[in-house]
């Protein structure tokens, strides 16, 4: 099976004798097996033909290595920190033991410069996931500390080509760092790297850049995302993005992972396709679609599959009014085809696949009318406090937000309501999957939708449900990490769980 354009190799250590001022990143590798070494190190990444930026990396690449393991394997990952700041690794979407979740100050102390930490867990649920730093993550993810994590199922239909596309956004210019108006701490030395340089009190219309300009949302107060002028696929933009070779007749899977802080709307040219999985979880009898957009919010993953039955060179690209979308595209190139690539049409007005009605209804774990052990409501909002913008859950910011207190075995129903005027809130629950039951008061009509990250747009209301089946203290937060760092975080806390972890006040733990 041809997994991607990435190089297959065993874990290797980059040349860490180099300094960030002169080192250059390597090509992202695919690592297989069950024991891995990840080294956090500084480097420089060429993002486009004319932009090279300082980055923080795992194993000297952005994205970091794509880790592929088999379902049921026990995985060990040794993280070594050779950066000037503490780091951790969170396994986004993977139901790991709580002590392995990588949350500084909650499940572990941040790994200090020069130190190591070994993560160990069993990869029991197959699917497309990713990993990233959760220490000062609003800044560290922005600098490049992320990578794909694929759990291959024991029994599954084989595909001929299996590609992973990690989506992200960058600032191409070095804007001087500004103070954080919320009073949250910011990392130094982040010039030109992204979200941390924004003034969260800016009245710039977030909707204009959110979803890359695709979604018409109400205007109002919001944080300025317009500094993003460079969108990337696997750390590259425009002509630097690797082509995706296929042969006629191939069954092709493309795994889309959004590691950025904006939603993107992805269009596959020239082919019918179906959405095989969302957040790693399979869709029951997915329907075939063509010329529809796949809307993918921060933290989400969508696996699409298609039959390579239309020879030529075809684009898979982002859509929107923001001119930066032009860089977020890859070419699907048929081997032996001498036709030139088709034309981009990133401004075309195409409908997005409606996941509320997609696929066929089938057996599900939860219903709207069953009795639940606990019910919670989370009102998500944007407020001005002490001269700065904060993002609240039920009017409070973390750590003052009220946790969802559960016991093992509880069934939990959560109502998520976005009362922000213009900000999307992609809500991510650690350690668990939840089922989406309704949107805006209407039950879902399609396949059971099982997720760990759900985008709640302004004015929307969702009801989700999960079973408390993984003991620990777990984060539940917005994955626009500016919103998380400015307050939109709570926890799911098992009241009958006792942890041996003790936070070190000298560790500099920054969970968001």
Automatic annotation (TrEMBL):
The keyword Translocase does not apply. Residues 1-28, 196-220 are annotated as: Disordered. Residues 197-207 have a biased composition (Basic and acidic residues). Coiled coil: none annotated. Keywords: Copper, Metal-binding, Oxidoreductase. CDD domains: CuRO_1_CumA_like, CuRO_D2_2dMcoN_like. This is Multicopper oxidase family protein.
